[in-house]
Amino acid sequence: xxKMSLDELCINTIRMLAVDGVExxxxxxxxxxxxxxxxxxxxxxxxxxxxxxxPLWANRDRFVLSAGHAxxxxxxxxxxxxxxxxxxxxxxxxQWGSLTPGHPEREPHTGVETTTGPLGQGFATxxxxxxxxxxxxxxxxxxxxxxxxxxxxxxLSDGDLMEGxxxxxxxxxxxxxxxxxxxxxSDNRITIDGPxxxxxxxxxxxxxxxxxxxxxxxxxxxxxxxxAAIQQAKKQTGKPSLIVARTxxxxxxxHKQDSPASHGSPLGKDEVRLVKQRFGWGKRSFHVxxxxxxxxxxxxxxxxxxxxxxNGMTRKYTGKYGKTGSVLADMLxxxxxxxxxxxxxxxxxxAGKVATRSASGKVLNAIAPHLPILIGGSADLAASxxxxxxxxGEFGTDKAGRNIRFGVREHAMGxxxxxxxxxxxxxxxxxxxxxxDYMRPAIRLAALMRQQAIYxxxxxxxxxxxxxxxxxxxEHLASLRAMPNLYVIRPADANEVVEAWKVALNRxxxxxxxxxxxxxxxxxxxxxxxxxxxxxxxxYVLADPxxxxxxxxxxxxxxxxxxxxxxxxxxxxxxxxKVRVVNMPCWELFEVQSRAYREKxxxxxxxxxxxxxxGAPLGWERYVGDRGRVLGVSKFGASAPASILFEKYGFSxxxxxxxxxKLMG
Amino acid sequence: xxKMSLDELCINTIRMLAVDGVExxxxxxxxxxxxxxxxxxxxxxxxxxxxxxxPLWANRDRFVLSAGHAxxxxxxxxxxxxxxxxxxxxxxxxQWGSLTPGHPEREPHTGVETTTGPLGQGFATxxxxxxxxxxxxxxxxxxxxxxxxxxxxxxLSDGDLMEGxxxxxxxxxxxxxxxxxxxxxSDNRITIDGPxxxxxxxxxxxxxxxxxxxxxxxxxxxxxxxxAAIQQAKKQTGKPSLIVARTxxxxxxxHKQDSPASHGSPLGKDEVRLVKQRFGWGKRSFHVxxxxxxxxxxxxxxxxxxxxxxNGMTRKYTGKYGKTGSVLADMLxxxxxxxxxxxxxxxxxxAGKVATRSASGKVLNAIAPHLPILIGGSADLAASxxxxxxxxGEFGTDKAGRNIRFGVREHAMGxxxxxxxxxxxxxxxxxxxxxxDYMRPAIRLAALMRQQAIYxxxxxxxxxxxxxxxxxxxEHLASLRAMPNLYVIRPADANEVVEAWKVALNRxxxxxxxxxxxxxxxxxxxxxxxxxxxxxxxxYVLADPxxxxxxxxxxxxxxxxxxxxxxxxxxxxxxxxKVRVVNMPCWELFEVQSRAYREKxxxxxxxxxxxxxxGAPLGWERYVGDRGRVLGVSKFGASAPASILFEKYGFSxxxxxxxxxKLMG
Lengths: 665, 665
Description:
Chain A has 24 helices and 20 strands. With 665 residues, the first copy, chain A, is an alpha/beta fold.
């Protein structure tokens, strides 16, 4: 091997591991790790405060590889600095069951902070992490007890900067002045389709200045320059920092440097040989020179020292500040504090109609004082989504304020929620159900990462009325139900909203979408019908034929259609039909019940079934079966008052009775 | 009524119509029309080249109300300038069956160019319109025959500028130097949640300069200033223009001006009275002073003259340039040219495996030379999506180049495709199926507007392999099928790709998603199995038991799972089972077939059915019925080679045979 400085040796170690990992997998992205190794090295060895032995240390700096395709860069750094990611995993890159998937997937035990790959998501998730840091600092820190002062570092690619979600998040971060963010933008001037000249010629630095960011330009190979830029960025406590680093994709590859050819494919055996020659690396694969390893592993001692100091401080803190100390302990253990649900409201059926969005606002306000890690807001629809926490202050303005003003930025809201959840908080975010489409990629990542994000999706059907089809969700319930690991809950009345929030808050391992009405709904009389607790089983029998008679047919409904089903039930029962009403607010919860329970609710012998839901019928066949029928919405909505739309689309008691009678023959 | 200048009178007429419309509907957004009336007036009476008598005149300037909630502004202008939108429709605002829905919905006969309301969409759709203008100009215009020089004007709100889709589109427009765009940004400093100070403090003008836009600042009440700014913007032929106009939401309302209170609710009877007092308007509702009407209606004469001159030029042009003249005639009539499908390839089953994405690239390249209105590209995945048109030039660089480099901007791509389609072109756009989530709001608008956009969604399942779950679609087929009016086609082999493109191109009234594999698939031997033409019916019988025997079970599959089903069929048949294989590439097409046909394909008496699809099982119960089973993907994918994933997720011939035998008992 060629003589080289320790810095060079370490940087080339990263490069060669990435090259070897991709080559062995015969799949992956070698170019970005080769180009970004120098700046990543400077960041990880001179700035990042972390403890490889405990990737969950609460005050660690976060590293977000927004350019997730450069995954081998991250895996190499984790391995080299001493995380629980052995060389065997690097050799097993992109293979079944490995800890080194093609794109980084959140894995707390190996130090992968967040799942990235879909471009822009890491950028915006990091903004959420910085929001979490600010809240934690404002809520927990006391004079002499700086518990939370971690920074969020990231590496970005051109693609990250082109995606709208990153633009939204950048604007939000600039507005909030999130100075803990330091992002290194790998300006390699190459995208998959060719040089950035063909599609991306804006002045990126100037754009970020316009957002209120601190912007610097450096040479991505200049170790000192990068170091100085990060130093400088750290001083910007009131502004997020973007360091535009001129890098070279596939750096060191004689035939593929600065070419898309090094982006998404292995370099190939011959080129790998030439690259190793170029770096004086010899022929060995997955080689880590001892001095490089020793240098990287210094992170172990410094990390242990950092954490131990922090633990000491935290112990003293807990002794001195009992109340916030106990909030801290719960947060660190991922526990909800005792009594968080002590003040939940209940709603009186005689008190008139209540929109489920309005009930949700009341529930949220009842819970919030007992659950300081609950934080959220709306994408500029706070009054409509009923997401405001009264008296809880404005995030970013008031100290430890909890009302986040996301602006008209649903996608950034979704991604920021992921960052908040990854940091130990419980985020909620509101918008109209229709605009869940704007944030789907972020919802998907919450589901994939098993993060507790709570979506407050109001105005859930044609029932929103006059705003028309652009604002009326039709396909959204079905499309959200299709997503693995997402709970979709559509409560039927105010008391079910209470239960829905309980489910959402107790579910620490995944996201929940609360689907709520704009319009008022009757509060069901639970002395007459089954209790709202049934929601926790996903589906339950709400009403049955009198005198324990066996039902001849089943009406199944969710949300605003449940009270229509009950009215139809009354009319049919009065006419002598034997009808059961099943409320099915959450399919996902129903599906995990025992078969016995499910068949008790929907007995296979009762094949005469009618499902009512003001949304796409897709999927309802599962519950109505071959002989059943679905009364859904198979076309777009229309602009008119809600009551007229319900009538026109068939959601009237009269029509339900007619359809039910037809089905019963 | 108070004495006022003609300009004032006209502007106030717009304001009062908007106020009255919202008040009568008891629903809507009065604030924006009141604030934006002055600049809209200047634009519509001094700059917009249009012919109210023919809203489809091909060289009309386009007006995009990106701030769709200000719909009464648009309806007032359309009514006043003489479009086919009588006063009765203004009085019927937001009512069932009216032509004046809550947000503007594309309606060619009344002059509503595009559906807006979901923020950012209008902005980005307008960018697509400007791309169409450039292509049409470059393709059709000749010396002395400037057939296409229309401009795209728009009115934007704060929300439009906050949405990521607009950021993506702005970057694209700046890169392409789309000088025909002139957008007026209504900088009213108010969003629903309060002053923009609480969430949106970036320097918008500077941001747009960074994108390469020409930016001006004016007072939104200053008629001369607005006029001069638009004049100036017109001179910027190489740069899109943003005119930042300081406006006042609810202008003229004593208690609600500059307040969110005037945004989304009627002003209320008392406030309306005060506003009318303030403007010296008297008490009449829906009042249009004669002189104002006369002034606005000048658009009729000038429009007729403009169009007649254009028609004359076009006639001469057609005489002189036969070939492009005939392309023009077809485009204007919405017809596909004769022989567009003359060069479609066919694929030989003995020639080895072909990925359906690769077949798609061949089909596209075969069609393109015969269909000059076909234009498109990819969101930075051209080589992966196989969307490049060889030799057709680069859009924006080569004259009439047709390969659009959208960059990593799926959402802007989707919205721009809507703009292209609305302008008479047939756009296609490629990305990975997983990233359809990034562009869903735009897909939905294509479906709602019945526009012919063709999505080339490749890498359609866990079959993409090593890139892992962040890149493997699972729920996307189901979530796209849930959307009304979208065709989702997943062809089983190369020859079905030909048929799929035929369906997509013949479908002038709605969008189609082509869902294609990364991996190679066998080309089915159509002498042995039914012809690929069956695709046009959505589902068809591919194989049946030998000797006309009645099937005992049905295997139903789509895309890459069809050849697995056929292998299983062979094994089962060899073992003596009587099995039918149904290929179901497009549910939407199958659903519109006659009941007789559907029951021929899926006879109700054959209840033993197994569906195979490497995606969420949601909805498949419709076809497999109560006794059937779905072999789908109910969790997220994983990072590993595709063949291993197919095995692990149960998509092996062996497992299908086992499941089928189990079902048959």
